[in-house]
Amino acid sequence: MRIRPFKLSDSEHLVKWQGDERSFAQWCKGRFSYPLTVEQVHHYYREIEGNGNAWTMTALDDSGTPVGHVLMRNADYENESIHIGFIIIDPQSRGKGYGREMVSLVVRYSFDILKVKRVTLNVFDNNPSAHKCYKAVGFKDIKHNEAVYTFNSEKWGTFFMAIERSQGGQNMA
Q: Are strands 2-5 and 55-60 parallel, antiparallel or unpaired?
């Protein structure tokens, strides 16, 4: 797997990866309207392009086909941290370890290229597979926030997670 900057041509892939409305909400937390359209993705991309502390990345499989997406935002070089979100893997490619591999590559990019010491993310507490994936990469739960988002009549909480680079270069929270 490889990661590279998101390109507008990736929009069609991102739109196809959306599942039902509930899983869509778990991915975007109301940031987009369901169902996702190419126009929404292009608008999102233009917003991100105007923000000097945010960018999007695409994960590619070994054949160069897009299989994942992640947003890197709130880059804080003074405090040496960055937050990641909007993490999604092509449903046809799930179960192959791509989520863990993509998040690992983003963490490595953050530590080795951006030279930050801390990467953070939020995950809904009703998304145990994503939570498990992030823990497998080395993220640790820092805080649980109860009922921060409402989907239909459900109240969803989030886990705020972090992974830190230690002095010796090893990752730890």
A: antiparallel
The number of domains in the chain is 1
Which amino acid type is present at position 147? Answer: A
Whichever domain contains 59, its CATH number is 3.40.630.30
The Cα–Cα gap between 173 and 170 comes to 10
Write the pLDDT tens digit of every residue in 27-49: 999 999 999 999 999 999 999 99
Task: State the Cα–Cα distance between residues 109 and 3, nearest whole angstrom.
Answer: 9
What's the pTM value of the predicted model, to 2 decimals? Answer: 0.94
Cis bond before residue 66 (omega within 30° of 0): no
Q: Tell me how far apart the terminal alpha carbons of the chain are, to the nearest angstrom.
A: 25
Quote the domain boundaries for residue 79.
2-172
Number of neighbouring beta carbons within 10 Å of residue 144: 11
